[in-house]
Amino acid sequence: ALELVRRFANGRLDADGAAFAADDLHVAADFVLPPFARRIFDLLEYREASPDDARQVLERQGHGIAA
Question: Residue 17's closest CA among 37, 36, 3?
Fold first, then answer.
């Protein structure tokens, strides 16, 4: 989830690619995500988030945006 949101925040993934990857993450986790991963899934799922939104989530969680 961290790598996924970093790539989206840095523009290395577009909204469609990020949403697709978030879906895959959710399925791979057998539909049970820890809190941070769930926030990322919710952020990216409906393609309404911007890279700025992703950067804000990373900053609030104390993660850098380098990917």
Answer: 3
d(Cα 25, Cα 40) in Å, to the nearest integer? Answer: 10
5 C-beta neighbours (distance < 10 Å), count: 31
Contact between residue 18 and residue 57 where contact means Cβ atoms under 8 Å apart: no
Position 55: which residue type? R
Amino acid identity, position 50: S
pLDDT at 2: 94
Q: What is the DSSP letter of 27?
A: H
Residue 62 per-residue DSSP state: T
26, 36 from 3: Cα distances, Å: 14, 12
For 49-64, how does the pLDDT look when each residue is reduced to its tens digit (9 = 90+)?
999 999 999 998 887 6
